[in-house]
Amino acid sequence: MYSRELDGQVLTLASSGWTFERLFVLYDRETESVWYDLPSSEGLTCVAGEFEGRVLPEVGSSLRPWLFWRGDNPTTKALPTRFDF
Amino acid sequence: MKTRFQTSWGELSGAVFLVLVAVALVSTGCSEEVKVTDAAGHHSIVDNDGKIWDITTAVNKYGMHKGGWEFGLGKNAIQPLIEPPLASPGSSEYPRDDATFLVIGVSVGDDVRAYGKLDLQRNEVVDVTMNDTPLAVTY
Q1: Contact state of A36 with B89 under an 8 Å Cβ cutoff
Q2: FRET partner for B40 with CA separation of 20 to 30 A, picked from A78, B8, B50, B119?
Q3: pTM for this structure?
Q4: CB atoms < 10 A from the CB of B81, how many?
Q5: Which one of B35, B46, B126, B138 would you mutate to disrupt binding with A, by most A Cβ within 10 Å of its Cβ?
Q6: Which segments within chain B are labelled E, that is strand?
Q7: Interface pTM (ipTM) of the complex?
Q8: Sorting pLDDT into bands at 50, 70 and 90, what band is B76?
């Protein structure tokens, strides 16, 4: 998960349709700058476009089975899903 | 002197060549990505919608060599989810407590949420705002 605020501007991140080495390459709809999670960097790096060189910092998140997340966070909201097996 | 029923071997082979090129273009054109480096050293890739992406700095500064870029589905092929509505505990759409599907759990202050991994994989990005903090949830 990444912050998508840069210099007070909120960016709308989306998939560019491209992958690089099988990972999705993102872009922001505001400037069409290209963003990628480089292995060498913490966060999302702008690799081309107006924001080239800038990094959107990574914000903590955890990947866990739902029941454990729910157990630790009883008030959690959830994205409705049909994948709730 | 040639009559209209006669043609040179050169003309015939030239026509066959053109037909083969046309067939090749038609059969590969839809899925072929175009990667271009111009005389000035600018690197570009063209996606299926014809949009040209300038990846010069990505290649030269960040090691994202042209060969690693694939698919070029177009920027509208996979739509992000933007502020999708969430289910609260007790609502009919809330997942069962004992469900084991994987989620990305996120919290900012008292705003706590879970997004299913499979949903994230389908849409690639979810753009949300949590406690006035704009965030992009990805997998």
Answers
A1: no
A2: B50
A3: 0.80
A4: 18
A5: B138
A6: 34-37, 43-46, 52-54, 69-70, 81-82, 102-108, 111-116, 125-130, 133-138
A7: 0.91
A8: confident
Residue bearing tokens 């060189």: A53
Is residue B135 a contact partner of residue B83, using CB atoms and an 8 Å limit? Answer: no
Q: How far is CA B68 from CA A22, B59, B72, B82, in A?
A: 8, 10, 12, 29
Contacting residues for B94 by C-beta, under 8 A, at least 6 apart:
A78, B87, B88
Residue with tokens 């040179």: B8
Tell me what pLDDT residue B17 has. Answer: 62
Q: What is the 3-class SS of A57-69, one letter each residue?
A: CECCCEEEEHHHH
Dihedral, CA atoms, B69, A5, B77, A34, nearest 10 degrees? -20
Would you call B58 and A66 a contact, using CB atoms and an 8 Å cutoff? Answer: no
Q: Which amino acid appears at position B34 of this protein?
A: V
Please judge whether A78 and B86 are an interchain contact, meaning their C-beta atoms are less than 8 angstroms apart.
yes
CA angle B70, B72, B74 (to 5 degrees): 160
Determine the length of chain A.
85
Domain ranges of chain B: 9-68, 81-138
Of B78, B76, B80, B128, which is closest to residue B106 (Cα–Cα)?
A: B128
- pLDDT, one tens digit per residue, over A32-64 is 999 999 998 889 999 999 999 999 999 988 999
Give pLDDT, residue B134.
97
